[in-house]
Each structure stands twice: as C-alpha cells, then as structure tokens.
Specification:
It is a single chain. With 560 residues, this protein is an alpha/beta fold. 31% of the residues lie in helices and 25% in strands. The protein has an eight-stranded mixed sheet, sandwiched between helices. Strands 17, 18, 19, 21, 22 and 23 form a six-stranded antiparallel sheet that branches. A five-stranded mixed sheet has the order 12-13-14-15-16, with helices on both faces. It is globular and about 65 Å long. The model has no long low-confidence stretch (mean pLDDT 93).
C-alpha cells in the first residue's frame, strides 16, 4: 500500500523531510562526543560573551563526570539539577549522563514545598543547584550532598570584575546572580580538583533512562516521566529532519527557553548539540539581554513561545534592529496566534511555525511544515516515524470517523517509558501497542493537519509552563479566610492562559483578593500564583460534591 494513503500528512512535508527516521543505538553522550569530534573548534556555548568550544565542553564534561563519580554517583542514580540556563547546566547534564546516571530537572523558581515533593519522590542523593536557591534544597528529601553553582563564575572576566565594583548597581546585579550557600560544596572547586573520567568508564546504553521530567498528567499530581536516551535522541533526530535547510556546524540557537523545561531541553540541549550549533544561553528571558546578543552573535534558529516572538518583533521594528538572520523559528507550549506569525515573518523574513507535544513524548510529536505549506491555527502534522489516531475519549479502542473530534493518541520512538514508581498511572496513559493518550481533543483534516479543540485535562498553560489546578487550590485553601477554591485558566492578553482563582470566603472573613494572592506566594512559584481572584458565594459541584472546574471556567467566560 502507498505510504501516503496510510499517512496522508507526508504529502505536506517540506521538501527533503523523510517519512521515517532511523533510531540510533547510541546514547546522548555519543551525541556530544560526535559533536566534539566534528566541530571541536566551533563555539558550543555563549554566555554573555564568554565562549566555550565543543572541544572545551567535552573536556569539562569529562572532569565534571569524574567529580560526580568521586561523590559516589553511579549508574542508575538520580541526580537533581536545580539550575537556570548557564554553561554549568549544560556541563552537569552531560556529566550525569556520562556516568550512566539519571538527570532530574527542576525549576529553580519552585518553592521549598514544591521541591520537597519531587526530591522525595525520585530519591536523589546528590543535587547540583544554583547557589541562590541552595537553602531550599539542603536537607530536603533524600539529598545528602548539595553542589552549589555560582553563575558569575561563567561570565566574561570584565563582567565579573564589574560585579565587584563598590557601586549600588553592581551590588544589586551580583545579588541577583549569586548568594552564599552554607552547607554546600562549590561546583567550581569540585570540578577543578578532578581529572577527566577514565575513557573506559562504562557508558550508558540507548535504552537506559536518561531523564526524569516532572509533569502533572491528568491527575495534577506531579510525577516523573521516564525518558530514555533513545527517546531523546529520536526526538532530536526528528527535529533535525523537520528542518532540512539547517546547516550542521553553522547555526546559532538562542536558549531563551529554560533548559529545565522539556521543550527547552530537547531544542537546546540535544537538538542543538546534534547539529553542532552555537547555543547562546540566557538565565531567563530578558528583552534587553536578547537584543544585546543579537548585535553580538545573531541567531539563525529560535525556539520560543508566542509572547517572546511578539515582544522581540515589536522591539526590533521600533528600534530598527535587524532580525533577518533568524531563518527558522518554532513555537510551542501554547497556541500560536496567526497574527503573531504575520508580525514575526514581516519583521524577520523567516518562517515561524507551531509544534505540538507533551513531556511524555520528549516532547514534540507534531509540527507545521517548515515551508509555505504550513497552516497557522493548526498544530501541523505528525513528525517522521510518528503515528496518530483520533479516538473516543470514553473508549480509546474506538477510532472516530474522519473529520470528527476525538482524543489524540500518538505513537513513535519519542514516546516515554512510563511514570517513575507509578505503574497504575502509566497504564492509564500508555495503552497497548505503545499508544500515548494526550488528553487533548482534536480534529484532523483530509491532509492530516491537526487542530486542538479542547483539553480533557484541566491543565493550565501559562507562559509555556504547566500549572496544575490542584496545586494552586491546595495553596488557596491554606490562606486564612478561604473556605473553598477552584483554579482555572482563562485566555491571557498575550495569548496562552492566566491562572484565575475563584474562592468562597468564610462569612466572617475580612480577606481581600490581594491577601489571597499574597498567601499563595508563600507556597507557589510566581507563575503559578493567580493573576486574578474572583469571590463567589458557592462553587458548582457534581453529585458527589466535586467542584466542576470546567463549569467554573465557562461561567467566568460568560461573565456570570
């Protein structure tokens, strides 16, 4: 049978994109080794102008791996990383993998309570953390050794010197990047004291676990998605095949997405290394820092989220800054408005397309073709070697007729191995035959382009980050005067969603909305704190008393 009859979407692929890819039998460590061999003298990392070549990166990884081995890290151990984007993050990531150990990424903006849950769940004994958040990790979960990273150590010498000037501005800038970390070991000193890991130290295999990435799934309880070396290499290879116009060893990729997020990790830590790209690192998205970097080292490939494209395009137009170097841009994590596509492409002359995925699929499964065949408003078509089905959400064994909405199932080499220590929840989403339930209701047109209609899961996506309503509601109920609460996502001004809290107050409570938000800040990362608080007399409930979040959201949208 003609392959296009079974997979009609392949007809819409950009010229040169294959229908399938060969999965590698090698690990992510081999990806870096190969890049060091092919592009040794090329700049691998740029951090505010301080550069690291691929040969230097490989040498740093070898020393860091030996340093971690001396701390007792062995094959299969989990090692927690709690770091913003910085060169030390890249080195630590590959060093852990070189030992056959497992990276567990954490958001450094998490509260102590949020970190405690995850650290306890995966049982890491060693954590490599940003020194400013080290107090939130020391003594938490099973962690015995905390290695603290000073971001200023990776800056160019002149910038490090400037931070030590006896000026208020310099002191404030330094305080934003580093802080004393009692009870920890210095990353810089630890690595400096180590020689390279012996070359004959056993390396990981393709089917070994590489990463635990925490996600809420359908229940809202964060759990670790198990991603193997094969999963992550496959998704990097799919991404490379998707953009045939890329030039190995010549691209510059901006890491404005956090490396601890599944999207940023794959596009920046694995995909970029696989093509020998220069990765320009930003600890967080800062418009001025990005524009400064554009003048110094123009980007050619930019993975980001819609609000970033919008802000960059507007600033470039207003200030007459040239962004024409960006030939390709891939948006994910939230819906991409067609107006943003039009704005970006008018300013850069490059292509901006939308992708779709989830943590459990490494994360990308679908994308708009990087060609004039793209269709803004859709999430595109399945990646090479990726299959999809659209099924009855109540009975995923029953396929929906063509054109009808249903739950999206995906299958491919990038689909995860299950949830860490949670076989029942794994079985609920990973069906026989390797099909992954996405929890999203979609439609597909005759050409295979998929449009997301609704989300079965009540996940809130704000600024590209996942927010689980149950976590927000738990924090809301801790606020004095709050009797009950529901957290929902409503459309935000810049696309995506914003977290909105709907609360029932005790009759005698003297609690203002800002008091509720302030109370939440004690227990939640900033992006999870509700942007708005709506006070109601009661919440809609099911017959068994469960709050109906979907009805709460519908009422707010209707203005009730």
């Amino acid at each position: 049978m003609d392959a296009t009859a079974e997979r009609p979407w392949t007809r819409s692929y950009a010229p040169g994109v294959p229908a399938t890819i060969a999965t590698s039998a090698e690990s992510l460590v081999d990806l870096l080794t190969d890049a060091g061999r092919r592009f040794g003298s090329r700049v691998a990392l740029d951090f505010f102008g301080a550069t690291t070549t691929y040969a230097e990166l490989a040498a740093q990884v070898a020393r860091a791996a030996e340093a971690l081995r001396r701390l007792g890290v062995t094959r299969g151990d989990r090692v927690a990383l709690v770091l913003p984007n910085c060169p030390q993050h890249v080195v630590a990531f590959y060093a852990v993998l070189r030992l056959g150990a497992v990276v567990v990424e954490h958001n450094p903006l998490y509260t102590a309570q949020e970190l405690e849950h995850q650290l306890t769940d995966h049982g890491a004994r060693v954590a490599v953390v940003w020194d400013k958040v080290a107090p939130l990790v020391v003594g938490r979960g099973s962690v015995e050794t905390v290695v603290a990273v000073d971001l200023t150590g990776a800056l160019p010498p002149l910038k490090r010197w400037a931070l030590r000037l006896p000026l208020r501005k310099a002191r404030a800038a330094r305080a934003a990047m580093t802080a004393p970390a009692p009870g920890t070991i210095s990353w810089a000193e630890l690595v400096a004291a180590a020689g390279p890991l012996p070359a004959d130290h056993p390396a990981p295999g393709a089917d070994d676990t590489a990463l635990l990435q925490y996600t809420g799934g359908t229940t809202g309880t964060p759990k670790g998605a198990i991603l193997t070396h094969r999963n992550l290499r496959a998704n990097a290879a799919q991404g490379r095949a998707w953009v045939p116009g890329l030039r190995d060893g010549e691209e510059t990729v901006y890491a404005v997405l956090p490396l601890f997020h599944a999207y940023g990790l794959t596009l920046c830590l694995t995909f970029s290394v696989g093509i020998g790209a220069t990765l320009v690192l930003f600890p967080r998205f800062d418009l001025e820092q990005v524009l400064d970097a554009v003048r110094r080292r123009p980007p050619t490939f930019l993975p980001a989220v819609p609000p970033i494209y919008e802000r960059l395009a507007i600033a470039a137009r207003e200030r007459d800054i040239d962004l024409s170097s960006v030939r390709y841009a891939i948006s994910g994590a939230m819906a991409l408005p067609p107006a943003t596509v039009e704005l970006w492409e008018s300013v850069t002359g490059g292509l901006l397309v939308e992708g779709y995925g989830m943590t459990e699929s490494s994360p990308i499964t679908l994308g708009n073709p990087v060609s004039p065949a793209r269709r803004p408003g859709t999430v595109g078509v399945p990646f090479p070697s990726t299959e999809i089905r659209i099924v009855d959400p109540e009975d995923p064994t029953r396929d929906r007729p063509p054109g009808e909405a249903g739950e999206l199932l995906v299958r491919g080499p990038q689909v995860f191995a299950g949830y860490w220590g949670r076989p029942e929840e794994t079985a609920a989403v990973l069906l026989p035959g390797g099909w992954l339930r996405t929890g999203d209701v979609v439609t597909m047109d005759p050409d295979g382009f998929v449009t997301v209609v609704d989300r079965i899961k009540e996940l809130i996506i704000t600024g590209g980050f996942n927010v689980y309503p149950s976590e927000v509601e738990e924090a809301l109920r801790r606020v004095p005067g709050v009797r009950d609460a529901a957290a929902v996502g409503l459309p935000g001004e810049r696309g995506g969603e914003e977290v909105v809290a709907v609360v029932v107050l005790d009759p005698a409570a003297v609690t203002a909305p800002e008091d509720v938000r302030s109370g939440c800040r004690q227990h939640l990362a900033g992006y999870k704190v509700p942007r708005r608080v709506v006070v109601v007399e009661d919440l809609p409930r099911s017959q068994i008393g469960k709050v109906l979040r979907r009805e709460v959201r519908d009422r707010l949208l209707a203005g009730d």
